[in-house]
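Let us work through a complete example step by step.
Step 1: write down the sequence.
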Amino acid sequence: MRTSLFSMRWTVTRLNGMPRRWRTSGGIDVCFNATFNDDIQGTPLVDMPVAKAVTTSFTVATAAARHMVGRGTGVILVMAGGREAIPNLGGSHVAWAALAGLCRQLAAELGPQGVRVAWPLSPGSPKPDEPDPDATRLLLPRRPSYADVANAAVFAASDWATTMTATEINLTGGAVVD
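Step 2: predict the structure and record it as tokens.
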């Protein structure tokens, strides 16, 4: 598989409306959905609807999967997580847990057809070159940078990870202990 990494933020209509582009480019190898979910951490769940993350990720992942299944290969990556309850994460945590469930189901259905699914779990990335006070609560003294997350995604999408599917990629610096 040729590994190329790009972020998709298209709707099904746009993605399915461009089949010629995908045919001429060789198809979709990797779908990495790391879109911003407009959620607000710190807001109690009763005061906040679940973010659009689940709908967006479902739409993008299933649209890309249709193209990947036809070729018998591909990798879907979704920023997700949410195994344990954490106070003050509200709708964010519910959405992340739902995304992890979505990824598990996609992996179960798409794996036999050659498509792998994994979900990076990150506690968020600090702004470059700024102090990171949130890192003091981690086992490692820093949260992952955007480059750290991108490097993990590139690895997960590469031929070095061909047997890796239905798995969470823990980039939490020890905030979540496996």
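Step 3: interpret the result. Strands lie at 30-33, 74-78, 115-121, 167-170.
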